[in-house]
Design goal:
Strand content: 15-25%
Number of helices: 11
Radius of gyration: 17 Å
Shape: globular
Distance between the termini: 33 Å
Mean pLDDT: 96
């Protein structure tokens, strides 16, 4: 792993070396709230055959630094642009899940020329219940990340998957528990204040929306809303809960490959 210093923080990232896949397009992968770039491990083997992968830890997560919050969605998205600029990447594909999908929507609206195609997964176009996030921030400040960990896991994964894949759930719980309280809470504020409803029609890049049929955090109707309001967007629903890339890894990876390589 490597780090790049931006004006107010450093970003931890992994970028496939060009000599290993010369000429392949770059695919930026953006993680969900409470996870790290390791959340994309199930996709790496399949995607590396077609793309140079740029994975990174969102500010306040993993090995990236944790500036004082609250954060905003423009800040989180501009970190991606800063990282691409420092790495000399003029244009890329983008795939983000949950909070990462919100970052992708902002980029599609405000920096569309930098992205050939967008994949927005298990995410929303606006926050219906800001009070939920205010309450979560209060709990975090009072009791720490451990107070929400079991509830988050129950939303990340369906009961069927959790019962069969306990080590995977434990791995993601460990990622969550290692997330700094200040970073998690600051990102909660960015999600709380997110509302793209007036601007979704400005997204010009071809866009795929992935939803999870069992996702209680971002149900399929949220994905349907995005698909209906982003011009030409396509919707694909997978048999998974919130972390669809983990619960349905093969289907998720194939959906990405098929869409990003389509004409």
């Amino acid at each position: 792993m490597s780090t790049i210093a931006l004006p107010e923080l450093h970003i931890n990232y992994l970028l496939d070396e060009p000599q290993a896949n010369e000429g392949l397009p770059v695919l930026v992968l953006s993680n969900s709230l409470g996870t790290t770039l390791a959340m994309w491990d199930p996709q790496v083997a399949a995607l590396r055959k077609h793309f140079r992968l740029l994975r990174y830890d969102t500010r306040g997560h993993g090995e990236s630094s944790c500036p004082s919050g609250p954060y905003s969605m423009p800040q989180l998205a501009q970190d991606v642009l800063g990282l691409m600029d420092r790495l000399g990447i003029e244009q890329a594909h983008f795939c983000g899940l949950s909070m990462g999908g919100m970052i992708g929507a902002w980029l599609g609206i405000h920096a569309g020329s930098r992205f050939s195609r967008l994949v927005l997964c298990n995410t929303n176009g606006f926050t219906e219940q800001p009070a939920f996030w205010d309450n979560r921030i209060d709990i975090l400040r009072e009791d720490g990340v451990g107070a929400i960990a079991d509830g988050v896991m129950a939303r990340f994964f369906s009961p069927e998957f959790a019962s069969k894949q306990a080590p995977v759930v434990a791995e993601f719980k460990a990622q969550l528990m290692a997330t700094p309280v200040d970073g998690y809470a600051a990102c909660c504020a960015a999600i709380r204040d997110m509302d793209f409803r007036r601007d979704l029609a400005k997204i010009n890049a071809p866009t795929l929306i992935i939803a999870g049929a069992k996702d209680e955090a971002s149900p399929p109707d949220k994905g349907r809303y995005l698909a209906e309001h982003i011009p030409g967007a396509k919707l694909q629903v997978l048999p998974a809960a919130h972390l669809s890339n983990v619960e349905a890894p093969e289907s998720f990876s194939q959906a990405l490959i098929d869409f990003l390589q389509s004409s």
